[in-house]
Every structure is written in structure tokens, then in C-alpha cells.
Amino acid sequence: MAGFESVFTNEGTPYQKEWKVTKVIPGRLPAHSWTYKNYPGFSEVTFELFDEDNKNRLKLTHTGIASFRTTRISPGTGLKMAGNSSSATT
Question: In the sheet where 29-36 sits, what is the strand order?
């Protein structure tokens, strides 16, 4: 359901993940925003489903990752991002 919101609490880290469903096409596409409470940055994750030759294909697109660029994150906090990288892992 578009508009549904969720908050994830991370023990031992100040980075509280928040997301909101931004788009839904039933059976084809859900998308949600991805942010960290009280930190700059906004991204969107889209999951597109396709039928191909009696199989399913999933295309995952994550836009806006570069908006989380920072060099102020302490090691061991659970959030790892390179200051000049456009990719991140959690």
C-alpha cells in the first residue's frame, strides 16, 4: 500500500532507518524511500517484476545513494560508506 511507513531500530548505532512505500503497481512493482532519521540523504529502492519465458525476473534499482555521502561516520556503527563512493552497504 503506497504511503505505508516503517522505522527500523538499530541497537548500538545512531542510524535509524526509515522507509515509506512510494509506489505500487500490483504484481509488478513496489518501491520505497530509504532515509536515516536526523541525517541528510534520500534514496529510493524499486523492485520491478517481469514475466519472461515462464520465469520471473527481478530488477532492483536503488537511486539516490550518493546523497548519503559522508566522512563523519564512526567505524563499527553498522553503516559503512566511502566519502566519494556512490555505493553503500548496511
Answer: 5-8, 17-25, 29-36, 43-52, 55-63
